[in-house]
Each structure stands twice: as structure tokens, then as C-alpha cells.
Amino acid sequence: MLLDVKLPVYYIFKRILPDILRVLLISIIFQVLKWFFSSYLPEIPLQLATILGSSISLLLAFNVSQSYERWWEGRKIWGAVVNDSRTLVLQVRSFQQADGLPPHEAASQLTAVAHRQIAWCYSLGESLRGQDPLASLAKFLPEPELAYAKTQNNRPLALLALHAAQFRELHQRQTINTFQQVQLDSTLVRLCESMGQAERIKSTVFPANYRLLVHFLIYLFLGTLSLSLVESMGFWEVPVLLLIASTFFLIERTARYLQDPFNNAPTDTPVTAIARNVEINLKQLLQEPNVPATLTSDTFYLM
């Protein structure tokens, strides 16, 4: 996630540099044609470039709007993950206290749920980013649960299954009653829904033909604009065209990066930082001594 700090210039322009160089080449070609083959250049009215530019602006506005909506949906999903993770541990603690379990057994059951939920948050974020979802599990899971998770393709789903098995065992031992098990299962359902929604965003990409069409239309507009300005502005057509091209390509590239909020890029939803906050909250609820610090960044983004 980009932070509210001054973005470095290299980050802003390095992604569009190849496109800017192509536009510069087009502009130079038209300048050469103007000086040596001016009779062969077609006269294109500036109104045509204006119409094309207005149409492309509408397409880019729609693209940015849809892309931001996907990014914001991803952020809302992880907000729900935080809420339900806290709710799950609070429910387990409250239900066990109400049933008067021995303190050591209640603490053991609560620690197992909390650590497994922390592992689930880290594992889900790593899975969405295409990283190894087992990377963070060894710190939070006992060896039998870790071995079980390794046998599953969907590791976050495996952890939810372990949650469900533990709650079923608690109900069979009459540690929790039927109503309490239903409440816990409802929280698991919400966690599973959040996981599915995030996976839907990850697996559903914008059509490539739409992106290529927008890219082609931008080049068509810039070529038309260059032909329109080369006669009236002379050499000044080059910097003016590059400035306009930078604006259009920056908007288009911003929309492209917002389309995937789980791409392990600076524009991502900060799933690792959110999982760390969940870890801090749950470990403090357990009154554990080794609570990690909140993730901070010395750059312009937070992952």
C-alpha cells in the first residue's frame, strides 16, 4: 500500500518510460518528415485529436474507477478478516469462561485457536500473493497440524478445517454447548467467505483485449495529435506531446496496478501488515510476553 509520503520520481516514471520513448520516436519521425518531406504529411485538424482525446479520457476514467473498486473491495475483505479473527478468539475465551473449564485447559484451547488464526492470516496473504503459504506456519502450529497443512493444496482452508474439528471436539466433550458451537461455526463461515472473495479477486483479471484496446487508442490519439501540432508548433511539439503522453500513460498504468490488490507490489493491500496487527491483538489478548511490534516502513509503501 502506498503511504502518504512523497513518492520518488523514479517509481512514478520508470513504468511508463518505454512508452514515453516510443512516443518520442514517433514525434522525432514526424519532425524529420516535416523538414524533408512536408508535402507528404497529411493535414489533420486539431479537432480530430481533441475528439479522440475526450473519448480516451472517458475510457480511462471508467478503467480507473473499476480498478479502484477492486482494490477497495480487497481492503474491505481484509478489514472483515481482522474483525472476524478478533471475534473468533473472544468467543472462544468467553465460552470457556462461562463453562468453567480448568484454567490450564482453557488457556491451552484458547492458545491453539489464537495461534492457528494468526497462522491463517499470514498463510492467506502469502497464498494470494503467490508466495509459499507454509512460510509462516511453523512458528504458530504444532507439528501434527503443520504436517496436515502440508498435505493440502489450499493451506488456509486446511487451517479452517482444523478450527472446525477443534470446535466439534469441544462440543462432543460438552465444553461448549450447541448454541456456542453454532456461533463459532458462523464466524468460521464468515472467514471462509472472506477467503473466497479474496481468491475471486485474485483469479478474475481484467480482459487483456480491453487493456490492449486502451493502449492502442492512446497511441492513435498521440500520433494524431503529433501530426496536428507538428505544423503549428514546430519543435515545441516534442515536449508538449511528451507531457500529454506522460499524463495518459500514468493514468492507464495506475489503473492497471490497482486491478490486482494481491500482486506483491507497492500498490497492494498490505496483507502482511494487517496479519501482523492481528498477531499483536491476539497475543495481547492471551497476555503473551513476546508481542511483535507493528510493521513500519522506511520506504514509500507498506506490504
TrEMBL record:
It is a multi-pass membrane protein. Keywords: Cell membrane, Ion transport, Membrane, Transmembrane, Transmembrane helix, Transport. InterPro entries: YneE/VCCN1/2-like. It comes from the Bacteria. Its main location: membrane. The chain crosses the membrane at residues 20-38, 44-65, 210-227, 233-251. It is found in: Cell membrane. Belongs to the anion channel-forming bestrophin (TC 1.A.46) family. This is Bestrophin family ion channel. It comes from Hymenobacter canadensis.
